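Hi team, as promised in this morning's meeting, here are the two structures we talked about. I've kept the exact order from the run log so nobody has to guess. The first one is mostly here for context; it's the second one we should focus on when we meet again. Sequence first, then the predicted structure tokens.
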Amino acid sequence: MKNFNKNQKERVEVMALFGYEMTPCQPLSFRRQGEEETEVTELLRTQIRFAGGVALHIFDVLVGRETKRLEFNSGNLSWHLTQ
């Protein structure tokens, strides 16, 4: 995986499972532009933040031994990797 600044957001494609048991959304894998798909090992934490009438769904996930954060923007339906 390529490195980037922690404060930078990178748009990614995400495969997610919606409406599963008690978790309304669970990211299963993501793919950065020009790279292979990366599997999410474990969902650690979820939270929702509201900004300007848009809900931002935040998922802290484990990828191997690394913690990553995926964000889903409900306004434009885009996914971003933020760390």
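And here is the second protein, the one for discussion:
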Amino acid sequence: MNRVSTATAWLLATSLLGCSGGAKESRTPHGEASKMQADRYVKTAIHRSPEGIIMMPSRKAESSYERGQLNQIAQAMRVPAAVCFINRGIKTIKQEVVDGERTFTDIPEGQIKVRARIAPAGDVLRAEILESGFQDKDMEACLIRMVEEQRFPPSTSNLVQRIDVVYWVSLGFQDEDRKPEAQLELRRQAALAGNRASRCFKQGQVPVGTYPVDGLTLADRNGRTVANRIEPGTVPAEIQGCVTSAFAKMQMQRVKEGFIRPFVTRLVFEVGQDGTVTHNDSRWLELTTLEQRAAREAKRRELAEGGAAVDEQEPPAQNPTVLGAGLPNAPLTGTPTQQVTTPQTQPVAPATPGQPDSETSGTKVEPANTSKGKDPATGGIKLKLNGR
């Protein structure tokens, strides 16, 4: 199946909301035909992206609100909806062996259709679930609160309006994160986190012994950690928060396609009689760092020698190629992040783009535009969506 980015879902949402100010013949007729068309749009959008929101106003609501306003509200609602998914997922997601293959289970994914009844002033009077494919009831409750807290613009009539909100979410594909180079980077990032966490063992004066530390990290498409946890009971309670913060600084590689990306980490720490703290990948990280440094130095020398040879034989270019902001090959820039408080993490101030996090940095989330992922319908009951 051809899959495109979540932006397509918003184009579909525009079609669902109708056209304002156009010729009467160009509008989708109301009745059973339009319901079937709307359901087809929703199902297509769900299959094409790992998350999204579509609003389906009643006929009266369609004439009381501008289409652009509803699209803006739907776009804004993706942020708190993603926060619901991340905060719930960091509690529930586990990695298990199913049919001989490691996979993630207990993911709070699914689809839901909520009917919001909106007062003339814009307050949501009541939100009720029409259909749901979520198995996680806490996820459902969080989404209902999200709809109830949403503020709509005042309507042009004094009547209570009805709008159906369809939301779906899943982890999406993890194909890129299963590649050998991605797994190698995960090991390196976990080892770096282990070096930071070693200071926690020293400062906490942990007794001599062996401490296996298991954790889960959720990262966004840009590789930034949006939530993480350290399994309870693996380290003394007094350093749990410190170790969790150390792993919150993990930075995975950027991927072209993705939404929320789960990573499982495991390190074994040794606290010696003399107070030294090491972990099982300390030496490996040291050796690979030296190898990378040597490779960079060799490449630098090669480029320097090659450049000198060119200078002797060729005149400088009159019109050199320039790459930079606004040009075809310019690098993508990030967006500010939003803080999310999750269990077993330390609340922190929002990070400043372009600056490193502090040692106590905790959890961040950027529920940004996403792209293709697995069909969320496989995570729960498929919505029938037969009627508005």
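Starting points for discussion:
Helices lie at 7-16, 32-48, 59-64, 67-92, 137-148, 180-203, 240-247, 282-313.
The chain is about 35% helix and 20% strand.
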